[in-house]
Automatic annotation (TrEMBL), chain A:
A cellular component term, taken from the record's GO annotations: multivesicular body membrane
Function: In complex with CCZ1, is required for multiple vacuole delivery pathways including the cytoplasm to vacuole transport (Cvt), autophagy, pexophagy and endocytosis. The MON1-CCZ1 complex acts at the fusion of vesicles with the vacuole, through its regulation of the SNARE complex during the coordinated priming and docking stages of fusion, and particularly at the stage of tethering/docking.
Keywords: Autophagy, Endosome, Membrane, Protein transport, Transport, Vacuole
Compartment annotation: Endosome, Multivesicular body membrane; Prevacuolar compartment membrane; Vacuole membrane
Name assigned to this protein: Vacuolar fusion protein MON1
Family affiliation: Belongs to the MON1/SAND family.
Compositional bias per record (Polar residues), positions renumbered to this chain: 93-106
Region (Disordered) location: 1-106
Family annotation (PANTHER family): SAND PROTEIN-RELATED, VACUOLAR FUSION PROTEIN MON1 HOMOLOG
GO BP annotations, alphabetical order: autophagy; protein targeting to vacuole; vesicle-mediated transport
Domain FUZ/MON1/HPS1 first Longin: 238-360
Ranges annotated as biased composition (Basic and acidic residues): 17-26
Automatic annotation (TrEMBL), chain B:
Name this protein carries in UniProt: Ras-domain-containing protein
GO molecular-function terms, A-Z: GTP binding; GTPase activity
Top-level taxonomy: Eukaryota, Fungi, Dikarya, Ascomycota, Pezizomycotina
Disordered as annotated region, ranges: 137-170
Presence of the UniProt keyword Ligase in the record: no
Source superkingdom: Eukaryota
InterPro entries in the record: P-loop_NTPase, Small_GTP-bd, Small_GTPase
PANTHER family: PTHR47978
Keywords: Nucleotide-binding
Amino acid composition bias (Acidic residues), ranges on this chain: 146-166
Length: 661, 260
């Protein structure tokens, strides 16, 4: 139910108040960090027409209700288009949409309630990563992001054209009567398990999600199974397409040339139509599918999603794919290729990196807290231990080192960097993806020497990365050589040493040997191993008896996040995906507008309660069980307790500063 | 394949720097994985950059420690190849028996090595993916290569299975590759990383073919390592700003010579 409610807010209201927004911004600045002193969630009292249901905060702007058809047939595509199709729990028990009045938690409310408290201790801590701008970069375009052709036509030169475009796409990709769409139609009698689960059952979605990562069958030479394969293609919940502005396919997550050619042609035509009209196409909706287009120089990137993600979130994902391409080619190289020949086939120079792009895309489809928050996760160890590791890295640092990182179980343990340069989270995400998601580096065994461009650092040239995996669980033997190729477990510790020196392999290899020797001597390897083997804490480890089932806590200043284990409530991929979808929606409500902080947003459904809380210092997203068993006050108290815990453990769960030379 | 260094202390030990070159997806990494870990993975993902591995091979009279550079086959990495073959004493140039273009690419690599690598470099031409060609072909060529330690022997034996070439996935006749190998004085093997056929043999043959004179002590590649390190040291001062990446790599490229 929350999905539906929130999607209503996300998709429908066209933010057509450009003249208003600056003024809004000023107001926002008025409520600055210092104004929000309270550590407590202000008690939020309000009435809602449907018990247990809340609406997203509208931040002071009058909440324009989406234009709705007079009668909504629950199964009609129009009805589906308005809200997230995937998880509409439904049927007769569902209160009608019209009955749910929009109540807004205004900024003013929070301001009044928190204004009396003493100023929070200043947050003048050194910012360790420069990725602060990463989110902000995308915010500028937010205003228009949620505008869809269908609902407003505002990006279409004329309404008529808008309709035409929509029908082209509707036919091809998202015809309401195509089998894939039917597959996704929620079972109307499936919902109603109020007691145990945090999310409603939806077997159709589960089925679709389970097959999401399967390869398409090959089309038989006689073409007899073509329709079947096309249906497989269409039933994917998420697609990514990358094409050149000349309309050449570059990469697609699903399907081979034969299957995607038509779509590439259609998408390319649509994009160039709008470019021709000097009106850049940003996105459109067809049925239950959201299309988001991002044009980057000679490339067009398209995300096609049925997950109900916001345009901003899809754009972050496209940005990440784009950075992966730059990481392979560098910007000047790519531009040179297209300058020399506009019809360049970029697949050739990108050959071999398809797996990296696919691994990124699948991470987004599975749901990635790191991408959602544009932040990194660190291994939780004591501050003194981390300091020891940082100092060891600094001590053995070789002259040509640019960045030195220790990563364990996909989480950052330690970073050393030059004073002048910070490390961009987007760059780190590409590296993590290469090392931990795509198997290519880990599977090979041995040590690796990888030329790569870190676009966030400098998109014009290559750096060289030395990678060595240690299996710390075999410390007793010899840590130096990796045992076998097939291992590749989470317990592995990776040492990454990045240098601008192309010939630096043996230098960095020596540094690694020294580092490993020192780390085992001062017992740091054991500490890392123990921390990795311990895994993430569960919510109840953190706060005994808490009602929280899962949360994401992002420290804005450190561009890092902290979260508990997905166990025991979200240990299947599908449960994790649903949780992340909920986080997506919460994130959207915090970020759809130029964001006034602090801001709090509650969601209640029969299945779960959730909270999104944004302050200048952090963003918190938390989930608790259904309102039947948990009160909102309990959720607020739990969130407060958590924030207190994180503050106390800040130097354990985050890398603050890191080693600097 | 197990690391037996401990038990063989008395034998003299030498390092041999070896580089694998060849078109993408011919099975370079799989050959190395078979040699080093006696393991095989279907659908291995492409190598990025290069991987560095070591493995010891026992010869009757000495232990050879291979220091292997497994390079990525994609074209965009081709410009980095000199860095890997510059000091190499041996090279494995790999092609895919089932893909005609891959032999052409292998021939380019051989030519480049003969032109640019150390004069004494031992080059082995290896046709991989033997498991994909038909069983009868398999018997003939497998036997041929297994029997022979020398390249001459290979030529004779391989002439016999010309008739097997059309019947299966094989696109490159053994005789054609063998003739080319003989002409260029290369070691020649057909291998299967999947079944392990001839993999150990290739490396043993290379170890045997390295001239005794060019074998150094246990830290045989120490010279090369030192060279790199010194180079790095020189690089360091001018590069302390670490901003001008392109400039930095260009400067390094210019100093290639002094690393040997």
């Amino acid at each position: 139910m929350a999905d539906r409610i929130m999607e209503t807010a996300a998709a429908a209201p066209p933010n057509e108040h450009p003249s208003e927004s600056p003024r809004q911004d000023n107001e926002v600045e008025g409520i600055s960090a210092a104004d929000f002193k309270s550590e407590s969630v202000p008690p939020v009292e309000r009435t809602t027409s449907a018990p247990g249901s809340e609406l997203p905060s509208r931040e002071g702007t009058p909440p324009p209700l989406p234009p709705r058809p007079k009668t909504i047939h629950p199964k009609s595509p129009e009805a589906q288009a308005g809200f997230s199709s995937l998880r509409v729990p439904g049927g007769s028990s569902r209160p009608s949409l019209q009955a749910q009045a929009t109540t807004a938690l205004s900024v003013g409310d929070i301001h009044t309630q928190s204004g009396a408290h003493a100023p929070r201790p200043s947050s003048s801590r050194q910012v360790s990563f420069a990725g602060f701008g990463f989110m902000r970069k995308h915010r500028g375009s937010d205003a228009g992001d949620s505008i869809s052709i269908r609902s407003t036509g505002s990006y279409a030169p004329t309404l008529e054209t808008g309709g035409e475009v929509e029908s082209i796409v509707g036919d091809v990709l998202a015809g309401a009567d195509n089998p894939a769409w039917k597959l996704l139609t929620p079972h109307l009698d499936g919902a109603g398990n109020f007691a145990e689960t945090l999310f409603p059952e939806d077997s159709a979605f589960e089925y679709a999600f389970m097959t999401e990562f399967d390869e398409l069958d090959a089309i038989d030479p006689d073409g007899s199974n073509e329709e079947l394969v096309m249906n497989q293609f269409k039933s994917k919940l998420k697609h990514f397409l990358i094409l050149s502005s000349a309309g050449k396919p570059i990469w697609s997550r699903h399907g081979d040339d034969r299957q995607i050619t038509n779509y590439i042609g259609v998408v390319s035509t649509i994009i160039s139509f709008y470019q021709g009209a000097k009106d850049v196409l940003k996105g459109f909706t067809a049925g239950d599918v959201r299309f988001v287009v991002m044009s980057k120089g000679p490339l067009n990137l398209v995300a096609i999603s049925r997950f109900g993600e916001s345009d901003t979130q899809l754009r972050v994902q496209l940005e990440s794919l784009y950075m992966q391409i730059l990481s392979t080619l560098t910007l000047p190289n790519m531009e040179r290729m297209f300058k020399a020949r506009a019809s360049t086939d970029l697949r050739r120079p990108l050959r071999g990196t398809e797996t990296l792009l696919s691994a990124l895309a699948d991470g987004f489809t599975r749901g990635s807290p790191s991408t959602l928050l544009s932040a990194l996760e660190c291994l939780r160890i004591r501050k003194t231990h981390r300091t020891t590791i940082n100092n060891t890295l600094l001590k053995v640092k070789s002259p040509n080192l640019l960045y030195g990182l220790i990563v364990a179980g996909g989480r950052l343990v330690s970073v050393v960097r030059p004073k002048k340069h910070s490390l961009h989270p987007g760059d780190l995400q590409l590296i993590f993806n290469m090392l931990f998601e795509a198997g290519s580096v880990k599977a090979g065994g041995g040590e690796n020497w990888i030329p790569l461009c870190l676009p966030g650092f400098n998109n014009t040239g290559y750096l060289y990365m030395y990678v060595s995996f240690l299996n710390v669980n075999n410390v007793n033997e010899e840590v130096t050589e990796r045992p076998s190729t097939s291992g590749g477990s989470d317990e592995e510790v990776a040492i990454l040493l990045i240098s601008p020196n192309k010939e630096g392999f043996f230098e960095l290899r020596q540094m690694r040997d020294d580092l490993v020797e020192q780390l085992s001597k001062n017992a740091s390897l054991n500490i890392i191993r123990d921390a990795v083997n311990l895994g993430r804490l569960s919510c109840t480890d953190i706060i005994p008896g808490t009602v929280l089932r899962h949360f994401l806590y992002k420290s804005r200043a450190n561009v890092q996040f902290f979260m508990p284990s997905f166990d025991p409530y979200f240990n299947t991929p599908i449960a994790r995906r649903r949780l992340l979808t909920l986080y997506n929606h919460l994130h959207t409500t915090l970020h759809t507008r130029p964001s006034p902080t602090p801001k709090i947003h509650h969601v209640s459904t029969p299945h779960h309660m959730a909270l999104a809380w944004s302050t200048p210092l952090f963003e918190l997203y938390a989930v608790a069980p259904s309102p039947a068993t948990t009160s909102r006050a309990a959720l607020a108290a739990a969130a407060n307790a958590l924030v207190g815990w994180v503050r106390k453990n800040e130097e354990r769960v985050f890398i603050i500063g890191g080693g600097v030379f | 394949m197990a690391d037996t260094a401990g038990g063989n202390a008395p034998k003299p030990s030498s390092s041999v720097k070896l580089v694998l070159l060849g078109e993408a997806a011919v099975g370079k990494s799989s050959l190395v994985m078979r040699f080093v870990n006696n393991d095989f993975q279907e659908n291995k993902e492409p190598t990025i950059g290069a991987a560095f591995l070591t493995q010891r091979t026992q010869l009757p009279h000495r232990t050879i420690k291979f220091e292997i550079w497994d390079t990525a086959g994609q074209e965009r990495f081709a410009s980095l190849a000199p860095m890997y073959y510059r000091n190499a004493q041996a090279a494995l140039v790999v092609y895919d028996l089932t893909k005609a273009s891959s032999l052409t690419k292998a021939q380019h690599w051989v030519a480049e090595l003969q032109r640019q690598a150390s004069p004494g470099i031992v080059i082995a031409l290896v046709g991989n993916k033997f498991d994909l060609v038909s069983p009868e072909g398999s018997a003939a060529a497998g036997g041929a290569s297994l029997d022979d330690e020398s390249e001459e022997g290979n030529n004779d034996a391989n002439a016999e299975d010309e008739d097997a070439e059309d019947s299966d996935a094989r696109k490159i006749p053994t005789a054609k590759a063998a003739a080319y190998a003989a002409e260029e004085s290369l070691l020649f093997y057909e291998t299967s990383a999947k079944t392990g056929m001839n993999v150990q043999e290739v490396f043993t043959a290379i170890a045997n073919a390295i001239p005794e004179a060019s074998l150094k002590g246990p830290r045989g590649s120490g010279g090369a390592v030192g060279g790199s390190t010194n180079l790095g040291g020189g690089q360091n001062t001018e590069n302390s700003g670490r901003v001008n990446l392109t400039g930095a790599s260009g400067a390094i490229g210019g100093k290639d010579g002094c690393a040997c």
